[in-house]
Amino acid sequence: MFFLLLSVLSGITIVLCFKWVDRLGLNAFTVIVLNYLVAFLLGFILIKKELQSIGHPSAGEMGSALFIGILFVIMFRILGASVKTAGMGISTIAAKISVAIPITFSIIAYHEHLSLQKTTGIALAMTALFLTVYRKEGSKKQTFLLPVLLFAGMGVVDSMVKFVQVTYLEEHNTLPFSTLVFLIAFFTGLLMKMTEKRKLLENFSIPIVLTGILLGTANLGSLYFFIRALDSGFLDSSLIFTINNLGILLLTVLTGVLFFRERLNLLNWAGFFLSLISLYIIFEG
């Protein structure tokens, strides 16, 4: 439970960082590239501090880290493009509902048993996710290609994390694997940045550096703590995926309402309270 809580707190910190980027008008992709460098360096420092040996990752670990790291960066770009073309509401729904893919993957691939009560809780949680992030889009072009890619891509990433956790990882190599993922993500983002017409250090400022450090720290924590939560075995993986996404969303909504003066419509509030009910059903099941 402890690692799941830390994963949720890391997730909400990531969301707040992007809100901060939007409010200040910072170059989002520069922050993203910097955050991956910070996540790698922090992971490397922690490995040395804990006297862990990085060792040589197996071919399977290396291939998985390469796949996840590259997909991390691609999903950030697709998310940005999706918001511009399909709107924030549809894009957020696609990103959140993608949790259905790793849930299904965990149940089928690892034969996780779900009682009727837990299945009901997951179904209510999925409904709550949709309702809580739903927004009417008035002026955006109605295109669903990018949201579909976003849904599929983020679902595949989460499913891959579960596969790696089961197949390759143990407690001693979770941090080295997470660090390797972010190193690959950094070089991928750096290559993408270098292909842009803008200079690499354009608009490089103190707010960008500080945001990148905070985002990188949260990103490393999010991946590391989530893998540890999956590895803890205190709940089935399908339930951990559900609670993690729902917990991040609930805290995001509360933070937006309390500190950013965001307004929720009736459906959003219905989804918010339905999510609380679903969490109660899941834990009681």
In a nutshell, what does this entry contain?
With 285 residues, the chain is mainly alpha-helical. The protein has 11 helices and no strands.
Structure description:
This protein has one domain. The model has no long low-confidence stretch (mean pLDDT 86). The protein has eleven helices and no strands. Helix 3 packs antiparallel against helix 7 and helix 5 packs parallel to helix 7. With 285 residues, the chain is mainly α. The relative contact order is 0.22. It starts with a helix and ends with a helix.
Chain-wise SSE layout:
Elements: H1 2-24, H2 28-49, H3 59-86, H4 88-97, H5 100-109, H6 116-133, H7 145-167, H8 174-195, H9 206-232, H10 237-259, H11 266-284
Helix pairs in contact: 1-9, 1-10, 2-8, 2-9, 3-4, 3-7, 3-8, 4-6, 4-7, 5-7, 5-10, 6-10, 6-11, 8-9, 10-11
Please indicate the count of domains: 1
Mean pLDDT: 86
Q: Helix/strand-derived class? A: mainly alpha
Q: Radius of gyration over alpha carbons?
A: 19 Å
> What percentage of the residues does DSSP assign to strands (E)?
under 5%
Share of helical residues:
over 70%
- Secondary-structure element sequence? HHHHHHHHHHH
How many beta-strand elements?
A: 0
Shape: globular
Number of discrete helical segments:
11
What characterizes the major β-sheet?
A: none
Distance between the termini: 16 Å
Low-confidence stretches: none
